[in-house]
Amino acid sequence: MLDRADDSHSANPCVVKRLERGDEQRWDAFVGGASRATFFHRVAWRGILEQVLGHRCHYLYAERDGAITGVLPLTEMRSRLFGHALISTPFCVYGGVVADDPDSEAQLTEAAGALADELRVDYLELRDRELRHPAWPVKDLYVSFRKAICADHDTNLKAIPRKQRAMVRKGVGAGLQARHDGSIAEFYRVYAESVRNLGTPVLSRNYYASLQQAFGQDCEVTVVTHQGQPVAAVMSFYFRDEVHPYYGGSVARGRDLAANDFMYWAVMQRAVERGARLFDYGRSKRDSGSYHFKKHWGFEPQPLPYAYYLVRAGTVPNISPANSKYGLFIEAWKRLPLPVSRALGPWLARDLG
């Protein structure tokens, strides 16, 4: 599938270039008009990954007759614990090549492979939403959950299966309140506790603040309160007519209040008001708790065929929490005092892209 008009009628070949300072506006203009592009192809991610997390980015684009015809954001991840990789794009659920025509896509893919060879990484990982590299090894671990929503709140509520709809109403009955102008401080207090309880290191507060600063109104924090105290929070991304509730969770006492269900329903209502027509619940590992939670909302899983070009690695990597060798670490992390998990988490999480 091509993104826009096929430019292959041009006699001139495309040329692959590295993104330089001053080309950011051209890059984002292309991303904004390319049907396969995602929020995670936006150029502001480069600054966050480099300046906040300390990783080296290699943003490539294809150009023909002075116009960008394809983009490929790549980030080099180097870790003593997790190896050396080139990924499009870490900390993001989607990535890979977005191009106007087959030649631009092929040239960018070839350039990525050549860069992986040059850097002597363990592997190159392209986080495509569709199978685009059938000859490459593919990781069959993650799925995404995407569903159209309509402009009518009642219709959207009725589309939620009965048992999950009852949970939304439980949150309403408990007196939960949602507002969509939450601060990073409120969000981080809730989110850091939520991921600690799951046994996952949290990134630094500065990382989330940088996202909000970089993406402005396209990055919104929803905070759910009970009797004036935050019990759930989520950071959502907006891109064209899509909403991505991306980083979210609740504190322990929020579970008895159905805070997560109420929160995502509040985000769906807010998204409709902002003109969104597609709700992207993000990725989950197959058969995980979040996987079943999203299915109970009436969303159907769609495979994410992340593709790998192996350089030094002999097999597709598995640094997911689903890997049994991380089980003891996860259980130990759940028991850490919250201040300790906040202090140590960013050091580990920055390499877990």
From TrEMBL:
It comes from Rhodanobacter denitrificans. InterPro entries: Acyl_CoA_acyltransferase, BioF2-like_GNAT_dom, PEP-CTERM_FemAB-rel, PG_Glycine_Bridge_Synth. It holds the Pfam family Acetyltransf_6. This is FemAB-related protein, PEP-CTERM system-associated. Residues 162-295 form the BioF2-like acetyltransferase domain. SUPFAM superfamilies: Acyl-CoA N-acyltransferases (Nat). It comes from the Bacteria.
